[in-house]
Design brief:
Layout: H1 2-17, E1 21-34, H2 36-42, E2 45-50, E3 54-62, H3 63-66, E4 75-79, E5 87-91, E6 94-96, E7 107-111, E8 116-122, E9 124-135, E10 142-144, E11 148-149, E12 153-158, H4 160-163, E13 168-174, E14 182-186, E15 189-191, E16 203-205, E17 210-214, E18 216-229, E19 239-244, E20 247-252, H5 254-257, E21 262-269, E22 277-282, E23 289-291, E24 297-304, E25 307-314, E26 317-320, E27 328-330, E28 335-342, H6 343-347, E29 354-359, E30 367-377, E31 384-386, E32 390-395
Parallel strand pairs: 1-4, 9-13, 18-21, 26-29
Antiparallel strand pairs: 1-3, 2-8, 3-7, 4-6, 5-8, 9-12, 10-18, 11-17, 12-16, 13-15, 14-17, 18-20, 19-24, 20-23, 22-24, 25-28, 27-32, 28-31, 29-30, 30-32
Length: about 400
């Protein structure tokens, strides 16, 4: 235990308290030219050659300073913004340290190069077409839709002898094995007029990478269904429904299609169905899903099973919601009411089971009025009232 405590104390001293400097080596630190593609290019100039593109450094600082430093995060900055003409320039560099490092406490003990010599030449510009080459085949059960590309022209610059050889830029992508849509930023390659790839040229462009979207969809046969909303006197089990077509070949993103075995084309409220009915329904598919044959509408047919409508003549009425201080007399002698329900329920229903009352909730003064009629059936029978009705009343 004592040994562990002593070792811990030494470790803390060496790591935190010890003021002695130590060295670390950072190999192949890359050089970044500041202003190359902006200020220098705007002057019609470019870097033709550089004495080196990487430098080895030996850095010195206290041990605790190096704790936050990863040599892979280092960059050497060479500022080109003050150069005004072609020629050879020997320039110094500055070390770009990460923000969390105490850079003022680090010094360069040794470097493989203390300055960078660049050759500045004239910049030549050109605009070329962008071509897209999508190759390969997607797996069985998938389709590839046309690629979506937004960039058709590219501004390039560089040495005249290199730029003049470029006939067009090409973006290439192989879709083999892909089962989901591709959204990539791809660097262009440059070709000459003989369609030969130019490999030993230095070309700069206003866009280093170009966006490419390739929709890759899973294809599936999906059953079409309809959601039925129960209504008074009629339930989903009381109707038969057909959808034409009943199955549709759909295609869409994998995450949408993987679990899609059936798809509802919409909902139908059975309250308004009194007999067989057919209606055209717009096929509103989820975003990212398409019908392979371009179907936009489907035909939904509904037929009632063991459900009928029957008319009853009612001549007994009551007044409901009569305001205080008023009385009401029903002037209507009889009212024909249409009810809907299963045949066996309607067979047992008599006119005595039907209650019709005049709703006077909106009446405030005496007079003659035509008011809504409230139609109800006594008991627990599943009966629906078809249509709306009115009664004439005299209020005193």
């Amino acid at each position: 235990a004592v040994s562990i405590l002593v070792a811990l104390g030494i470790w803390i001293y060496v790591g935190i308290v010890d003021p002695a400097d130590m060295q670390i080596k950072a190999k192949n630190v890359p050089i970044v030219f500041v202003g190359e593609d902006t200020v220098l290019a705007d002057k019609g100039l470019m870097v033709v050659t550089s004495s080196t593109d990487k430098v080895d450094l030996t850095l010195k600082a206290q041990r605790r300073v190096f704790w936050d430093l990863d040599s892979d995060d280092l960059r050497l900055l060479v500022d080109l913004r003050e150069i005004e003409d072609v020629g050879s320039y020997t320039l110094s560099y500055s070390v770009d340290y990460p923000d969390n490092v105490q850079k003022n406490k680090i010094s360069i003990d040794h470097a493989s190069a203390y300055s960078i010599t660049v050759e500045i030449g004239e910049l030549f510009k050109k605009t070329v077409d962008v071509q897209y080459s999508i190759t390969g085949n997607v797996p069985e059960g998938y389709i590839m839709r046309p690629a979506e590309t937004g960039v058709t022209m590219l501004n390039i610059h560089g040495q005249q002898e290199d730029v003049m050889r470029v006939s067009y830029a090409k973006i290439s992508f192989d879709v083999t094995g892909h089962t989901s849509s591709v959204n990539e930023m791809i660097a262009p390659q440059y070709y000459d007029s003989g369609n030969k790839l130019l490999e030993n040229v230095t070309i700069y462009a206003n866009k280093k990478t170009l966006p490419v979207t390739i929709p890759i969809y899973m294809v599936k046969d999906v059953k079409l269904t309809v959601e039925l909303l129960d209504g008074p006197g009629v339930r989903a089990e009381d109707v038969s429904v057909t959808v034409q077509p009943d199955t549709l070949r759909l295609a869409g993103e994998y995450y949408l299609m993987e679990s899609m075995e059936e798809y509802s084309v919409g909902s139908i409220d059975l309250s308004g169905i009194t007999s067989g009915e057919s209606k055209s329904v717009n096929l509103a598919l989820p975003a990212g899903v398409i019908a392979m044959d371009g179907t936009k509408d489907v035909l939904v047919s509904i037929a009632l099973k063991n459900v009928a409508t029957r008319e009853f003549t009612v001549n007994r009425f009551a007044a409901a919601n009569v305001p205080e201080g008023l009385t009401a007399e029903i002037a209507t002698a009889s009212l024909n009411v249409t009810l809907r329900g299963r045949n066996e329920v309607l067979d047992e229903l008599s006119v005595e089971d039907i209650q019709v009352s005049a709703d006077l909730s909106h009446i405030e003064t005496a007079g003659s009025y035509t008011v809504p009629a409230i139609v109800r059936c006594t008991g627990d029978a599943d009966i629906g009232v078809i249509g709306s009705y009115e009664l004439t009343v005299t209020v005193k």
